[in-house]
Amino acid sequence: MVKLTIDGMRIRALEGATVLEAAQEMGIVIPTLCHHPGLSPYGACRVCIVEVGKGDRRSLEASCTLPVEHGQVILTNSEKVRKQRKLIVELLIASCPNSKTLQDMAANMGINRIRFRIRDRGCILCGLCVRYCKEQMKSGGIGFTGRGTTRMVATAFEVTPEECRNCGGCEWICPVCERACTAGNLIDGLCGGCQNLAPVETCPVCTGCSESVGPHGYKVY
Amino acid sequence: MPRSANKIKSQCQKVAAIVSKCGGDRDSLISILQDIQSEYRYLPEDSLREVAIQLELPLIQVYGVATFFKAFSLKPRGKHMVTVCLGTACHVRGALAMLDEVKRQLGIESGETTEDMRFTLETVNCLGACALAPIVVIDGKYHGHIGPGKVKKILKK
Ligand code: FES
Ligand code: FES
Questions:
Q1: A49 lines ligand 1 (CB under 6 A)
Q2: What percent of chain A has pLDDT over 70?
Q3: pTM of the predicted model, to two decimals?
Q4: Topology of the domain comprising B80-156
């Protein structure tokens, strides 16, 4: 057992657990994007950053990949964390404005403007699909190719790989195509649809699958 | 048809030989790819497939590594590699003019290969030899302090 402090609460966590897991166990919500309980930690999106202090030194770390340590002092919602988190979400939206998950996150965090030039790449390289394919389906049909600005998720030689069993898991887990944001035009890079409580388009039989869309496609908070 | 089938077969054998030479385990993927690259001057698609089979890796993993490193090429490369440095120091010393000259001489853009498969032109950002700027590397040989005129002479050779 490791003893640490999260948001002023003294807690005990299992050795080898991550800070995110420890916090979740205590009912503390840390927003995440590239984290999935069934997949290996990845640390790509940095949305889950927390302030870690040991002694005088404080730093921002991604909680989903940070192992708990004895005597750690964690702040999950300090001023600094909120500010940086907003910035990160802004950057993510700038490269992927049509993700409903991201737009919801922005609305939740009170982001009211995207200060960066929007370049829709349709992917935030969170690696969820790649990990899903490899770890859950034991297939490995898709992966990352290239690097730097040309890095993307692809199949080898752009053909459907033999390994692919058409399970559709990659689409299901994707925070971008899970449910594309359907607002017509973006205002300052943000979707006005949900924020204005205007009905968003839903599937013919809406079951309110996305957390933030209630029945009949209204946003609920 | 039989000829190309033969070619593929011999390629498979070569790849298998390279894989076993490198120890045949997954950690040596990069050195395997390096050896294939020096054998064919590029990474043919079938050879990557063969490597994936031999190492029991998903093809995408091999493909990902092959596209990650700039040293690997999936397109056939020419016999001679011409690498022009466009880093800061070289840029200041007129690398662009030299690059233009090289392009004119070879008749290709950077990243391309001449039709007769003799030259491939590439640019890099700093070779770590800024004192020699502007610099061009031809087949691994560094030619420093080089101007458009000199580069022409070297290419002629
Ligand atoms: S959830 Fe931790 S970095 Fe993405
Ligand atoms: S800039 Fe060309 S070698 Fe450094």
A1: no
A2: 81
A3: 0.78
A4: Glutaredoxin (3.40.30)
